[in-house]
């Protein structure tokens, strides 16, 4: 048992070191991860510590505070950057069927993609809106706290290796054309049709620390809230509520819900499985 | 002298190819009053929509459900990681899910679950590797052992796919190598008589 007692001490120390690291990250750089679920954060920081051959998260913190530019590595590690075009195709089918017909009744539409990461889902929406002849009168705001992933999003250039999956997602999501209409292949990349981004504004916005963003008709924020603890999740959903017009829609990730936010009664469930909600008119 | 208060608090299970029948064999053998919660990663195709939890719930006396964020890890429950999500254990004994990078080409990954559970439950955790055709979970077994937990692998000779339990055994961190029915009996014995 002696060995495992030593190991327990190491695990407990890591808990403390992570708290200190997150404190440093917040007070020095203004990125607040203190209310994220900790298990994931620890995993990412331990991974980075080992990958760099460092002995402890304290050493990683030293690097964060003293090495210029190292913050970018940490932000990349802690960003939620795994995404794909038309992820969960059934979500898009329901949006097309239940939400877009209502949005069509507005002369001008605002959509906010919160936590858009590298932008794949933003362009998926742009494609769907174009096919529904709505793109011209829609303003899409795509935001993320991480300027590096936003830069990728802005370019709209993605690895060609993913295109096969994206094509089958697009078809399953109710796409009405050939997916190859929307990109040009070049070497090992695809460049998305630049016209898609005419009405997209990419901007830095931090859901944890920034305030109300816009008066949107639809907010899409998928697989971001699952990284937050209950209190942060409730705070962010309140931010969404205050950033929606009355009768506006909210689309979450398939495992997310309003259950623990204290705001479930402010929304009508449009699709339980696809996590599409509508803010009540009153 | 044995510690009279010692009791395992949770069981984590990892499996891939052949896992459905192996999980069914073990879970269906557990009595309704079985008190240790189980957390299960079975590698699956991404769009299998809760089938596994539903199937196992119908064939088990304990309650089996697909895990949701913030689920409390309570006695009498088995939680299955949803397809395409990693499942982790938080300090307050709740579940969190992520869609972060695949590990060992897998999401959910067994290592991700085992590592986070070992951090929280330390020596009060049982880790179990069943049939499977890759090496996910081996690293997690090492972590559970390091924290003082009990580690078990299905006897590779009785596994539909031997690689996963064999790779776990090869780490030299597996305490017991057992057949499925022996595993079920051991879990029941440990649950009934915590000091064993």
Overview of the molecule:
The complex is a heterodimer of chains A (282) and B (196). With 282 residues, chain A is of the alpha/beta class. Chain A folds into 2 domains: 2-78; 89-279, Rossmann fold (3-Layer(aba) Sandwich), CATH 3.40.50.150. Chain A contains 9 helices and 10 strands. In chain A, the strands form 2 sheets. A 7-stranded mixed beta sheet of chain A has the order 6-2-1-7-8-10-9. In chain A, strands 3-5-4 form a 3-stranded antiparallel beta sheet. In chain A, β1, α6 (120-131) and β2 form a beta-alpha-beta unit. Chain A starts with a helix and ends with a strand. With 196 residues, chain B is of the alpha/beta class. Helix content of chain B is 31%, strand content 20%. In chain B, the strands form 2 sheets. A 7-stranded parallel beta sheet of chain B has the order 3-4-2-1-7-8-9, with helices on both faces. Chain B has a two-stranded antiparallel sheet with strand order 5-6. Chain B has 6 helices and 9 strands, in the order βαβαββββαβαβαβα. Chains A and B meet through α1 and α2 of A and β6 and α3 of B.
Quick synopsis:
The complex is a heterodimer of chains A (282) and B (196). Chain A has nine helices and ten strands. By secondary structure, chain A is an alpha/beta fold.
